[in-house]
Amino acid sequence: xxRTALATSTGLSYDRLVKYLAWMSDKGLIQLDSxxxxxxxxLGADTxxxxxxxxxxxxxxxxxxxFS
Length: 68
Known about the structure:
Helix content is 56%, strand content 9%. The chain has helices at residues 3-10, 14-26, 42-58, and strands at residues 30-32, 38-40. It has a two-stranded antiparallel sheet. It is globular.
């Protein structure tokens, strides 16, 4: 998904989103492809699944949609 669409769908300012994407890229959670679109890595998908599992266990029945 491109950065503008991500910023719009998350309600973040573009500048803040770019900082978060840089952090996630440094941690190996996303990759930027040749079009500069953000793509979730296997580590990112696994981390998402673990986070949702933790939320369900400690917070309650919540499921966040995955962006593709």
